[in-house]
Write a structure and sequence with these properties.
This protein has 253 residues and is an alpha/beta fold. It has helices at residues 2-19, 38-45, 57-65, 110-124, 140-152, 193-200, 221-233; strands spanning 28-32, 49-54, 71-74, 88-94, 125-135, 156-162, 171-177. The protein has 2 domains: 1-202, Vaccinia Virus protein VP39 (Rossmann fold), CATH 3.40.50.150; 215-252, no CATH class.
């Protein structure tokens, strides 16, 4: 649909903007999960060159049909980026990298596939360049897994969150630096840097709020879990614990 195309184009534009490319010369970019070449169109319009990788031959067929200007490669990025060191001046990816978190085959290990992707990507990029990967994470654990593997592979940088306070417009861009740690760009629609840091920090550690007496704060998740545990020990019937246990309800839908 045209709406999807429009969103895809906006995100491509934003990703290229976050790359901070030099304006005086054309660059060669890698587009990971290039699909039918929509991001590539924007890269070409900006006067740069690109090579696109995608796991779907059907999507690449569409790119060929549309006469996309980039070179296309049918490949699974979970097996690595098969290019010589320092080939690319930058890398973008629009809503693709989260798929590496899925184990489609028995042999697939998401952390290994992510590490293989990031370590070979790191090598394929010129020192001082960036990779900007827009993704739709399922949860904070996924974001942490992806970010941790990127850092393990040598990248610096982190998550840039555009419009963090909007349910619809909120977008995650993993902005990675190669060999030099730049300053992380500001997310769009963030009032202050402090708020953004708060927004972009994902943690799955449950802070145990306890009063001086060592008891959990009343009505907190921990307090509820402890109370349920006590009731179970008393042999009462208690609902199973889920991720919703102790979760505050929104005041409205």
């Amino acid at each position: 649909s045209s709406r999807v195309v429009e969103i895809q184009s906006q995100m491509s534009e934003r990703a290229v903007e976050l790359l901070g490319l030099p304006e005086d010369r054309p660059c060669l970019l890698l587009d990971v999960g290039c699909g039918s070449g929509l991001s590539g169109d924007y890269i070409s319009e900006e006067g740069h060159y690109w090579i696109g990788m995608d796991i779907s031959s059907a999507m690449l067929d569409v790119a060929v049909e549309r006469e996309a200007e980039g070179d296309l490669l049918l490949a699974d990025v979970g097996h690595g980026i098969p290019f010589r060191p320092g080939t690319f001046d930058g890398c973008i990816s629009i809503s693709a990298v989260q798929w590496l978190c899925n184990a489609d085959k028995k042999s697939h290990s998401p952390p290994k596939r992510l590490y293989r992707f990031f370590s070979t990507l790191y090598t394929a990029l010129v020192r001082g360049s960036r990779a900007v990967l827009q993704l739709y994470p399922e949860n904070s654990e996924q974001l942490e897994l992806i970010t941790a593997q990127a850092m393990r592979a040598g990248f610096t940088g982190g998550m840039v969150v555009d419009y963090p306070n909007s349910a619809k417009a909120k977008k995650f861009f993993l902005c990675l630096f190669v060999g030099t740690s730049g300053t992380l760009p500001k997310g769009l629609g963030t009032e202050s840097a402090a708020e953004e840091m708060h927004q972009a920090k994902f943690t799955n550690e449950r802070a145990r709020f306890r009063t001086a007496k060592g008891k959990s704060v009343k009505k907190s998740r921990d307090w509820i879990l402890e109370k349920k545990e006590r009731r179970r020990r008393q042999g009462r019937e208690v609902r199973a614990d889920t991720k919703y246990t102790g979760r505050k309800r929104r005041p409205r839908f």
